[in-house]
Amino acid sequence: MCAIAAALAAGSAATLPLQAHAAVKAPLPSAFESPDEVPLPDPDLWQRIRVGFALEPLESPLVMEHEAWYASRPDYIKRFVDRGSRYLHYIVEQVEKRGMPTEIALLPVVESAFTPRAMSRAKASGIWQFIPQTGKHYGLTQDWWRDNRNDIVAATDAALNYLQKLYDQFGSWELALAAYNCGEGCVSRAIASNQRRGLATDYLSLNLPPETRNYVPKLIAVKNIVLAPNTYGVEIESVPDKPYFTTVPAPAKIDVKVAARLAGMTEEEFIALNPAHTKPVAVSASSGTLVVPVDKAEEFKENLESYDKPLVTWTTYTAKRGESLDAIARRHGVSLAQLKSVNDPFKVDRKGRLKAAGPVLVPMKAGKPANPVRLASVNVPTAAAVAAPRAIHATGKFHVVKSGETLFSIAQRYGTDVEALRSANRLGARAVIHPGLRLRLP
Fold first, then answer.
1. Distance (Å, rounded) from C-alpha 42 to C-alpha 29?
2. Which residues pair with 237 in a beta bridge?
3. What's the CA gap between 373 and 364, in Å, rounded?
4. How far is residue 205's CA from residue 55's CA, in Å, rounded to a whole number?
């Protein structure tokens, strides 16, 4: 508690703006004789974050400016807390595992306000705002099906790897954060310039771009408000100190709508946890997993196992240069508007003909729109209220292969033998099964 009391004294009082002092509605109490007497809020994730704060106060008027900006926008704070509550526990755990200051877990507030598909003018994307080149350098796949810069798990790992590398390079979290914003070369050049002139090379002494000069003060302002929200007249909703999501084994491809229904989730909530998938088909071929709330994991597994309809209702059509989008839409039984909504922006001429050949996502059955997904025993939740988890047991007709399973283990599970499974599914002696394959049970 001593550390928290000291942080409250050093981390916020020195940087409170006039607006924040005006927001205090009652005189401060007398000093406590013992730190053990200091009343603390109920333990939650915010308290865990506060305990891990380690950055020094930043003596800059920019901190006060940004404190005032955030404190005057309670709705903005509420929105980023609502979004961030899905991801924050995972991020905090990863930050703590690496021994980093927990201020780092708040960096997505500055970068994206925890908007999972945020895209900047510089084409930086995701809650950590990776530009394409840096994302690729740190292993974040960006292809036609998915953009892992938006993947919460993969991008968090990449961002923390990058920040650790910058800290090791510059020896200061403030300089590492500045380099995360404007690039290693930008900070290195500013340091070299000051060294040539015999000037200090700390963050506040460097001549950095305006955005970078404001970058660390923004983070410190967010930290100060999290440290003592009442002092700023701000209410921050409690976030439980427990995991919100987990990963579950998944087929190589599955319609987003189908996956959401199998998990008993709204499509909007599913996308918020799986924002890397850029098409209405979730492609998990590389990881073999999808992300669902912890309390939906078993429901998803059971529903997937018993689901006996097509998991994917979309496929790719290789369009030729000069083909008309209208003709492609008619041929596949969809409207032009729907075709455009599920694909990346098309480059077309004035007559609506494609300027280049390339893949187009279309319904799997030519001439018919994609079949609607129906689960008789699963009610589709509304966005306002997601139903409680439901258990749907296997029907005994089909089994969806999961990662690590073999024909032998599946046969044992259902009280049959390998040869019967092979015969029921017309599998040869050397056939290899893979996750997502639906096997008919004998």
1. 20
2. none
3. 13
4. 17
Domains in the chain (CATH in brackets) are: 2-232 (1.10.530.10), 314-363 (3.10.350), 396-442 (3.10.350.10)
Q: What is the pLDDT of residues 61-100, one digit of tens each?
A: 999 999 999 999 999 999 999 999 999 999 999 999 999 9
Query: Residue 430's pLDDT is what?
Result: 54
Catalytic annotation on 269? no
- 41 touches 47 (CB < 8 A): yes
pLDDT category at 19 given cuts 50, 70, 90 is very low
Catalytic, out of 67, 111, 299, 305: 111
**Do the strands 245-249 and 289-293 form a parallel or antiparallel pair, or are they unpaired?**
antiparallel
In angstroms, the CA 339 to CA 347 distance is 14
Q: Which tops the pLDDT comparison, 381 or 258?
A: 258
pLDDT: which is higher, 83 or 30 = 83
Residue type, 41: P
Give me the phi and psi of 37, to 5 degrees please: -90, -10
pLDDT exceeding 70 applies to what percent of the chain? 78
Give SS3 for 103.
Answer: helix
